[in-house]
Amino acid sequence: MIYFWFILGLVVGSFLNVCIYRLPREESIIWPSSHCPRCGKDLRPLDLIPLISFFLLRGRCRSCGEKISPRYPLVELLTGCGFVGVFILSGGEFVPLIFQSVFLSALIVIFFVDLEHSVIPDSASYLGILAGLLYNFLFGWPVFLSALGGALLGYLILYLISLAGRLYYKKDVLGDGDLYLAVVLGAWLGWGGVLAAIFLSYLLAALVLLTLLLSGRVKFGQYVPFGPALAAGGLITLFFGPQLIGFYLEKFWL
Ligand SMILES: [Zn+2]
């Protein structure tokens, strides 16, 4: 069953690639069928096998030889491995398995779209918020209230940070999309989880920014999207949240 879930993850990853390409361009994700963005030729079934086609084609379009971004096999592999992680996390239980796979998929799409286009598609956020609240509703009122609280808390924290940024730097340090993404994280992870996720995001963002600044890849004061850090923080919290929160409390509070 876990192997099946891995293969399904690869296939879903292939679909997520379509979403990552089309959502920021406001194109339909179901029509038309997949084609090369340069020559427009439809991809043949043999070109659509996740992971394998990229290597068979040696990373180039069969018709025009246009280079295919390594993001395609990367997203497929990432989703496949993520699905395996979710399978282990949920113990193979059907409802958590399905919902957490949706959550993982939404975060992967948001991560890559924001990385490339500095925008978070509202449709992915809305789906994420609704699915998260619905999922936690299935576990009764205390869990649901934690999810509602987490959604509000996530929004509030990033709103305050963005307000502080506007007062202090006189410019936007966060986009509206980041605020909605924090709501998504809260709706899934509850109020404790969203705190952990935001904390982790800033830790990750600081590490990555420092590396980019030191290596001269970005300049000081340049706008860098925060969504990828939030999405990554959310994913780490999904998989390791309870352990991380436990570790933190033990080290610093108890
Ligand atoms: Zn082509």
UniProtKB/TrEMBL annotation:
Segments forming domain Prepilin type IV endopeptidase peptidase: 102-209
EC number: 2.1.1.-, 3.4.23.43
Keyword Signal on entry: no
Compartments reported by the entry: Cell inner membrane; Cell membrane
Pfam families for this protein: A24_N_bact (PF06750), Peptidase_A24 (PF01478)
GO biological process terms on file: methylation; signal peptide processing
Domain Prepilin peptidase A24 N-terminal: 7-88
Superkingdom of origin: Bacteria
Xref: Gene3D superfamilies: 1.20.120.1220
Entries under InterPro entries matching the protein: Peptidase_A24A_bac, Prepilin_IV_endopep_pep, Prepilin_pept_A24_N, Prepilin_peptidase/N-MTase
Single GO term (MF): aspartic-type endopeptidase activity
Keywords: Cell inner membrane, Cell membrane, Hydrolase, Membrane, Methyltransferase, Multifunctional enzyme, Protease, Transferase, Transmembrane, Transmembrane helix
Catalytic activity: Typically cleaves a -Gly-|-Phe- bond to release an N-terminal, basic peptide of 5-8 residues from type IV prepilin, and then N-methylates the new N-terminal amino group, the methyl donor being S-adenosyl-L-methionine
Transmembrane segments: 6-23, 72-89, 95-113, 125-144, 150-169, 181-214, 226-249
GO cellular component entries: plasma membrane
Physiological role: Plays an essential role in type IV pili and type II pseudopili formation by proteolytically removing the leader sequence from substrate proteins and subsequently monomethylating the alpha-amino group of the newly exposed N-terminal phenylalanine.
Family the entry assigns: Belongs to the peptidase A24 family.
Protein name: Prepilin leader peptidase/N-methyltransferase
Source species: candidate division WOR-1 bacterium RIFCSPHIGHO2_01_FULL_53_15
Lineage: Bacteria, Bacillati, Saganbacteria
